[in-house]
Amino acid sequence: MTAEIINITHEPQRAISEASRVLNDGFPVAIPTETVYGLAADATRADAISHIYETKGRPQFNPLICHVCDIEMAERYAVFDPASRKLAETFWPGPLTIVLPLRKDSTIHPLATAGLETVGLRCPEGFANDLIRDFGRPLAAPSANTSGKISPTSARHVMDDLGDKLQLIIDGGSSPVGVESTIIRVDPETGAILLLRPGGLAAMHIADAAGRDLERRSGPAAIIEAPGMLASHYAPGASVRLDATAIEPGEALIRFGGQPVAGAEKAAIDLDLSPSADLAQAAANLFEYLKRADASGASSIAVAPIPNEGLGEAINDRLGRAAAPRDGEE
């Protein structure tokens, strides 16, 4: 089986109708979102969710984000506290996932939540939103890549990785944000807003809207509360070395802001996430450049320092997980 690709610019209505048909049959569809491409399936059906896990090779204790078309749909499945609702009203549609308690009558299947009593909900923009509205039910949609590998930001990335496992890929061009959504949860006891995963919405913007600072974890999570919390994640085949100021001959180099790196002339490939030091541009290029560095044949990817502010926090989070020891490593 080789996936069919439908371009939404050329065939918008056919893209919606064919995607809805495959989803109704219980199979996943790769769809564009503003963050990364998602592997979407009906969040209310066990068989559909199982097909996501099977396609990705994803551990079933890692929950899936469920995507809705608006707050009204979200309220059919989860319970909003006032702070969470305010953030949804401010930032939806957009790259913010909010972890909320499930309603007792929620039909989101436990396979999508990994058995938790909470669910991560997001309202995406563009085609994904139109598809959910047409489909009428939430879509579980992790990134459309083999579990633990680099997230896709184009239909080509999806085809290269999963094209022989899917029926349909919807091509919406390059993902404009380029990193996954920010995930937050409001602590029901203290009212604190917990940052579970930095992402495409900078934490400072959430803090401004909420009128309070976000709380960050000081160590590894005791339990997996949301997607992207595994220590090793977003990993290329090559090893990743962070905060590099010099590289060895044959290493791949990823730098930022035109900063000089000793030995760069000997790099297998030399990539700059943003020569103008624009963190939004760097986020949009991150996964594409990791893939290009990995494809260079280098056994190691050296990444120069990136500011840990604004979207830099999300970029450094992804790079830290890409550099984490893999299974069987110290």
Report on this structure.
This protein is α/β, with parallel strands linked by helices. It has two domains: 4-216, DHBP synthase; 239-323, no CATH class. The chain contains ten helices and 15 strands. It has helices spanning 12-24, 46-56, 71-74, 82-91, 110-113, 126-135, 155-162, 203-210, 279-295, 312-323, and strands at 4-7, 29-31, 38-42, 66-67, 96-101, 118-122, 139-140, 168-171, 182-186, 193-197, 215-216, 239-241, 252-255, 269-272, 300-303. The chain has a nine-stranded mixed sheet, sandwiched between helices. The model has no long low-confidence stretch (mean pLDDT 91).
Offer a few descriptive terms.
single chain; 330 residues; alpha/beta; DHBP synthase; 2 domains; 9-stranded mixed β-sheet; 4-stranded parallel β-sheet; 10 helices; 15 strands; 29% helix; globular; Sua5_C
List the helices and strands and how they pair.
Layout: E1 4-7, H1 12-24, E2 29-31, E3 38-42, H2 46-56, E4 66-67, H3 71-74, H4 82-91, E5 96-101, H5 110-113, E6 118-122, H6 126-135, E7 139-140, H7 155-162, E8 168-171, E9 182-186, E10 193-197, H8 203-210, E11 215-216, E12 239-241, E13 252-255, E14 269-272, H9 279-295, E15 300-303, H10 312-323
Parallel strand pairs: 1-8, 4-6, 5-9, 10-11, 12-15, 13-14, 13-15
Antiparallel strand pairs: 2-3, 3-7, 4-7, 5-6, 9-10
Helix pairs in contact: 1-6
